[in-house]
Amino acid sequence: MSFQSIYKVVFRRNSVFVGTVFLGALIFQTSFDVGINKFWTSYNRGKLWEDVKYKLENSGEEEE
Question: How far is Cα 26 from Cα 37, in angstroms, rounded to an integer?
Answer without folding.
Answer: 16
